[in-house]
Write a structure and sequence with these properties.
The structure is a homodimer.
Chain A lengths: L4 E6 L8 H13 L2 E7 L1 H8 L9 E5 L10 H7 L4 H10 L5 E4 L3 H12 L9 E7 L4 E5 L9 H18 L6 E5 L10 H12 L3 E6 L11 E3 L2 H26 L3 H9 L1 H10 L8 E4 L4 E4 L6 H16 L2 H22 L1
Parallel strand pairs in A: 1-2, 1-4, 2-3, 4-11, 6-9, 7-8, 7-9
Antiparallel strand pairs in A: 5-6, 5-10, 10-11
Chain lengths: 344, 344
């Protein structure tokens, strides 16, 4: 690795790939001080790149003949398609030829590949998908959002720890609050997992504020909410689904008469602000945290700007040395455990 | 029980009790052909009732000295407070002195009391809380919404069966669709529960349409969505939380300038329509289905109109003989199983 950060990009992942991905990369090298390696069929990528004006040496192509589609079985696909744009991008990080990897393709294949090719941080049992969501009063992180449909209580403590480091360093919130997603405010509420996790979280070395009911999540008042991946994915997708439905109905109502159309026109700037406020693309992609490399999953429907934001997020991750900070905390915890053990 | 339906009402449950509850009862006896027995401190209730003009013989008071608060441990409270307004209302159904029971108080105590005092329908292992929610394209049911934080796969099949009968008879949808809440459309996605439940649901005697991702739930395109109570409660509370946040932000934006205020004024009828469309109070309360009596949990913040709607829901439940229809299907299923067993 040189002095300039190098980012590996899966050129063939996402609904709008390679077009939006390539354009996002071009925007990024113009705005940030990074070099990019895009993986995918050389001819196709070169043709896309030729459309833009930029410093040619900033973006290289690494030829990859195969593509993993979102419909393929994630684990099978990543195991079989060694020549896929995704596998080759991940290998660049594994071999330390790149400092981070991004893809807007299959979430499952990206997570499986990050786990198998890049590998876990020692001490983290389950890496987790952790998007930043726009809340009413500020952004919040949901961790895990789908990597682990089943979790053990201790996994949720590790999620809290990683979330804290991310939030503190990238979102610059001092001593961020960590909440446990649960269906009641009281400690004894919930299922077996949340009851056991609550006990462990109370003892953890971060600002645990107790259970948070899903109704309170969208306010963003709690910075990091921890849960198993099934619950987190439900939270994330309900967020998207409810918001989309309300805006659809609002639009229908505005279009229903002349008066409401005028009203809608006058509220255009307001709607624009709201759209911006609730636009999760502003925060980049979802970090897959707990692996030994910077792995960012950009949203499948990313346009060029969203993809550029995901690249910015990878740069933040790198500049703030998130991974080595997680490693340091884990080492410290381990030493404390040994010390406590020796004291007995 | 006479020819006229008799409804037992917990007079002391809910944020606005006894005022809104009593007023809701008065509205109901004026509009529907029912008699009501309200439980609670006689003096307090009589004082409230004296405010209204109605046929005095339609509403009776059953004196109950104790009140269960939402902060009490549900199971403990229902066991200890035999003289509570809730326990006495439930006992009226158990003793067949009333045909249905409603409360806007503690959900936990209501469910525990319905289970202990009224009792399960034979063949239903886990009664479930099943509210009707307003979707973009129509109402939908989420079952279970919090009665059972842990579920077995076969519980979800019973939820589907009960949901189908409710939806068919009360919402008059022919052959309603049943979906399994899951974090992926494919059969093999999800956690252990959803994977096992999917297999059973495919074999069930109703219109199972496969997995439904939480993003799709708010459209209302699938009539009945089944899940464990932890997931259902998360779906319900995210729905409420996201909607409330969006409307809050919209309000703030409208109040931010003169132009947007005018725009907001012109859109008033549109907002009213939207509010009505997404008002879950329109559909009454949440039925606690699977017990041997009609048990309706009205929303804690019910006003008089919402409480009246919950009473209408109990009447629908009664008129359509939901409980005996559930019993009939269970008997039929049992006979089929015996026949299949004998064939072997």
């Amino acid at each position: 690795m040189g002095i300039i950060m190098i980012i590996a990009v899966d050129g063939m992942g996402g609904d709008n790939s390679p077009k939006a991905v390539v354009e996002g990369c071009v925007l990024a090298v113009k705005e940030y001080d990074v070099d990019i390696i895009i993986t995918g069929p050389e001819d196709t990528l070169q043709q896309e790149l030729n459309k833009y004006d930029y410093k040619k040496e900033k973006i290289r192509i690494l030829d990859a003949k195969e593509v993993i589609s979102p419909n393929e079985h994630p684990v099978m696909a990543i195991r079989k398609k060694k020549e896929s744009s995704l596998a080759k991008a991940l290998a660049l990080v594994k071999n330390k030829e790149a400092d981070a990897v991004l893809s807007a393709g299959s979430t499952g294949a990206f997570m499986a590949g990050s786990l198998f090719i890049v590998g876990r941080i020692k001490g983290i049992d389950r890496p987790a998908l952790a998007p930043i969501m726009p809340g009413k009063n500020g952004p919040f992180m949901v961790i895990d959002c789908g990597a682990n449909a089943e979790c053990k209580p201790e996994n949720l403590v590790q999620f809290g720890l990683m979330g804290k480091i991310y939030f503190e360093n990238i979102l610059k919130v001092n001593n961020p609050t960590i909440g446990l997603v649960n269906i009641g405010a009281e400690e004894e509420k919930g299922n077996e997992l949340t009851k056991a996790a609550h006990k462990l979280l109370k003892e953890a070395d971060f600002n645990f504020v107790g259970n948070i009911e899903p109704r309170e999540i969208p306010s963003g008042d709690v910075n990091v909410v921890v849960c198993d991946g099934f619950t987190g994915n439900t939270v994330l997708k309900m967020y998207e689904g409810v918001a989309a439905n309300i805006f659809d109905v609002l639009k229908e109502e505005i279009m229903s008469s002349f008066t409401t159309k005028i009203g809608g026109a006058l509220l255009k700037p307001a709607f624009k602000n709201i759209k911006k406020k609730f636009d999760y693309k502003e925060y980049g992609g979802a970090a897959f945290i707990g692996v030994k490399g910077i792995c960012i999953k950009a949203h499948g429907s990313s346009d060029a700007k969203a993809f550029k934001n995901a690249i910015r997020q990878a740069i933040n991750f790198y500049d703030n040395q998130i991974i080595s900070k997680i490693q340091q905390v884990l080492e410290k915890n381990e030493q404390t455990s040994i010390a406590e053990f020796e004291e007995v």
